[in-house]
Design goal:
171 residues; mainly alpha; two-stranded antiparallel sheet; 5 helices; 2 strands; 58% helix
């Protein structure tokens, strides 16, 4: 009985997590709330993987039924978001549009004094750090929730508490 209530709570938790992932991924397309960077293709390349929209968002809504897919796709979002976070934003520097921190292996994350290398979009480093970090956290939670759902489903099946309706005369 307890696993049924817990499973229902977990399903209810996946919906807001998925909706937040979709919302946060959409925000990544508009650094500093401006649309000009998306329309001129001046965004971090990992934004275009649609990890929060397709994989951590929409697919996690479906993972209420397919928890294993929820783990795979939320895990994809987690990995791609981590790669996007470590790579740094695509921004205009004194040398033109580039990944200013690509060779730093993520060290730029702890040295805010070098963030000024990105001249445009304004505050793009902070924007990417905050939103990719939120996607990492949301995806991590989704992986955990889906894993718990699978464990509960497997325990029901293996322990014999899973309800199966058998029509008379079929077996």
């Amino acid at each position: 009985m307890g696993s049924r209530k817990c499973g229902g709570c977990l399903s209810g938790l996946l919906i807001p997590l998925a909706l937040w992932s979709i919302t946060v991924n959409i925000l990544l397309y508009f650094p500093n709330g401006q649309t000009s960077y998306a329309s001129s293709n001046k965004l971090t390349n990992f934004v275009w993987y649609f990890e929060g929209i397709c994989f951590s968002g929409v697919m996690t809504l479906l993972s209420i039924i397919f928890s294993a897919l929820g783990i795979a796709f939320s895990g994809y979002c987690l990995v791609i978001s981590a790669l996007g976070l470590v790579q740094g934003p695509y921004c205009r520097t004194l040398d033109g549009w580039e990944y200013a921190f690509e060779g730093t292996a993520g060290r730029f994350l702890t040295d805010s004094s070098i963030w000024t290398q990105c001249l445009e979009p304004a505050h793009v480093v902070e924007w990417n750090i905050i939103l990719f970090s939120i996607l990492i956290a949301l995806s991590g939670l989704q992986v955990i929730v889906c894993l718990i759902k699978i464990i509960i489903q497997l325990s029901k099946i293996l322990c014999g508490t899973y309800s199966v309706i058998i029509q008379p005369g079929i077996i």
